[in-house]
Amino acid sequence: MTLTLNQRAAVLSVVLLLAGLLVWEVSIAAGGAGSAELTEYEKLTGGGAPKAGVPPPSQVIAKAWAELSDPFYDAGPNDKGIGIQIGYSIYRVLSGYLLAALVAIPLGFLIGMSPVAWRALNPFIQVLRPISPLAWMPLALFIIQDSEASAIFVIFICSIWPMLINTAFGVAGVRADWVNVARTHELGTLRTAFTVILPAAAPTIVTGMRISIGIAWLVIVAAEMLVGGTGIGYYVWNEWNNLDLTSVIFSILMIGVVGMALDAAFGVLQRAVAYAE
Questions:
Q1: What is the sign of the dihedral through the CA atoms of 184, 187, 193 and 198?
Q2: pLDDT value, residue 54
Q3: What is d(CA 50, CA 73) in angstroms, rounded to the nearest whole number?
Q4: How far apart are CA 236 and CA 245, in angstroms?
Q5: In 3D, which of 21, 10, 95 has the Cα closest to residue 60?
Q6: For the chain, how far is it from start to end, CA to CA, in angstroms?
Q7: What separation in angstroms does the CA of 83 have from each of 64, 198, 236, 244, 258?
Q8: Domain boundary assignment for the chain
Q9: Residues 211, 166: contact at Cβ < 8 Å?
């Protein structure tokens, strides 16, 4: 039986994963077995006390099983299930992201269709775009006076630029012949925008949206570490303060899984709007 390219890639991925886990497990076990015998002085000064260390993968898997068995438990402000924490993070990401889409896509259309608007707004875009989203956090906290809304604002800021620039680039790149044909048929500006320009520019726009959701998911972790309360970023920081590295590694893996799922969703959308001339 001949395996397809995807099947061979899947088998190789599983082999690499198992090899990595095995090396990790063995290296942790070897490090523990190599500990030297404590002297009397070290025992008297507390040298024998348990020390935090990197957990083996078996411990992380056991932690993941325990957390994922009851992901929505709520035992107080600092003890919530991983499902609740991720839910708060996704809510903030989607809130800021959708607000950014409402602003960026229409504005990108305007910039892409109007050279005057592009020349007028480009200096502002070039100045604001390189600013780190987290640099806005102190100002947002001071003005908005609400940590939840400030985190959403930071997601809004980091999401808007890729969508805005890609929309403008996609709209400006639509072939002039198609727009001229629409004018020949006396289509209005809005009808031309929705029936001619939008289908042609959609792949570029969705690419910008896909980049934005990835950046938003990266930024929410850091933002939640700053604002605290709830969310996967706060969960990582809280477990670090508890010196629970097993939970830290588990939450890092969950951040990766959720980020991959968000990217995959936009990958499906990108294929759905693929435009063939």
A1: negative
A2: 84
A3: 29
A4: 9
A5: 21
A6: 39
A7: 12, 37, 14, 18, 11
A8: 56-68+77-273
A9: yes
pLDDT tens readout for residues 129-152: 999 988 998 999 999 988 889 999
Structure token pair of residue 251: 């939450």
pTM of the model: 0.84
| Amino acid 183: pLDDT | 79
Q: Which one, of 197, 194, 155, lies nearest residue 172 by Cα?
A: 197
pLDDT of residue 52: 62
Report the alpha-carbon distance of residue 12 to residue 2 in Å, rounded.
Answer: 15
**Distance (Å, whole) CA 23 – CA 57:** 10
Q: For 56-68+77-273, which CATH class?
A: mainly alpha
Phi/psi-derived region of residue 52, left when phi > 0, alpha when psi is between -120 and 50, beta in every other case: beta
Cα–Cα distances (Å) from 86 to 16, 30, 234, 243, 262, in that order, read 28, 35, 10, 21, 12
Burial 30-41 (b: 16+ CB within 10 A, else e): eeeeeeeeeeee
Phi, psi of 74 (to 5 degrees): -140, 105
Instruction: Please return the burial class of 140, using the count of CB atoms within 10 Å of its CB with bins 0-12, 13-18 and 19+.
Output: buried
pLDDT in tens, 26-43: 988 877 655 556 666 666
